[in-house]
Design brief:
heterodimer; A: mainly beta; 7-stranded mixed sheet; 4-stranded antiparallel sheet; 11 strands; globular; B: mainly beta; 6-stranded mixed sheet; 5-stranded antiparallel sheet; about 0% helix
């Protein structure tokens, strides 16, 4: 149980285009989901906290107009990278917290974004 | 702000050796601490979660300890195997403002040679 999926697993896009990444909790409800970003040989950095039915909370330095997060249901959160640039190329990982718990999180397999 | 540090950054050992990975954190008021494994280009695999009230957790050849007062945790891997080669990350929850998202260390890259 407690499986989180991400789609796509990898994507290549051209500069200036937008890319949407989906994060789904497959067998549990997740009121809260998190989006992390990981650069090569670096650790995971929290980008934003996504709460179902409300606006996402972004970490300092993360542009909310560039990284659009929508948590429309208890099992789906989406991250849209708008007007992507090569510096947005990274590994994006989501996690989901089981509704009713505070600390137990489950991670998706990640999405590799390459912007050419 | 909570800082999570992992030492060493990289480690290479021959197969069969026992090894210890270290994690330290600056704010001892943590709810739990979690160890993850990450293979190259892949997501995270949760290895062990230690609650703040616990001193250690064991799973197979892995044993994680937690000393909140000193702000330290260790991950002990017994009888290492080449399949253990990966990056190991420790993480502690952030505060409620971030919904208890995880604050990660930079990881220890482990290579176990045959």
């Amino acid at each position: 149980g407690a499986v989180v999926s991400q789609h796509p697993s990898w994507v290549i896009c051209k500069s200036g285009t937008s890319v949407k990444i989906e994060c789904r909790s497959l067998d549990f409800q997740a009121t809260t989901m998190f989006w992390y970003r990981q650069f090569p040989k670096k650790s995971l950095m929290l980008m934003a906290t996504s709460n179902e039915g409300s606006k996402a909370t972004y970490e300092q330095g993360v542009e909310k107009d560039k990284f659009l997060i929508n948590h429309a249901s208890l099992t789906l959160s989406t991250l849209t990278v708008t007007s992507a640039h090569p510096e947005d190329s990274s590994f994006y990982i989501c996690s989901a917290r089981v509704s009713g718990t505070y600390y137990e999180q489950y991670f998706g397999p990640g999405t590799r974004l390459t912007v050419t | 702000k909570q800082e999570v540090t992992q030492i060493p950054a990289a480690l290479s050992v021959p197969e069969g050796e026992n090894l210890v990975l270290n994690c330290s954190f600056t704010d001892s008021a943590i709810y739990n601490l979690q160890w993850f494994r990450q293979d190259p280009g892949k997501g995270l695999t949760s290895l062990l979660l230690i609650q703040s009230s616990q001193r250690e957790q064991t799973s197979g050849r892995l044993n994680a300890s937690l000393d909140k007062s000193s702000g330290r945790s260790t991950l002990y891997i017994a009888a290492s195997q080449p399949g253990d080669s990966a990056t190991y990350l420790c993480a502690v929850p952030m505060n409620s403002n971030s919904g208890y998202a995880l604050n990660f260390g930079k990881g220890t890259s482990l290579l176990v040679t045959p």
